[in-house]
Design a protein that fits this description.
87 residues; alpha+beta; four-stranded mixed beta sheet; 4 strands
Amino acid sequence: MSSSPPPAVTLLTRPGCHLCEDARRSVDRVTSALGLGWEEVDVDADPELARRHAEEIPVVLVDGVPRDFWRIDERRLARLLRERTTG
């Protein structure tokens, strides 16, 4: 039986975004509690991401799929990540 890799958690942000600060703390709390890592990506550095998510920043992606935006629901994110890590 092989174990699957941990879910990839990415937070899309942009400089000067006040909601991004809250989202950063939320994602960090959830992933830290589950022993997972995450990455932050500045959408303004990627024209395609900026176009796709222009009005939804911040956005949390799990395995490349948008799961929440603006205000991150920590309980929903934790539930999703637990489901992904336990199969």
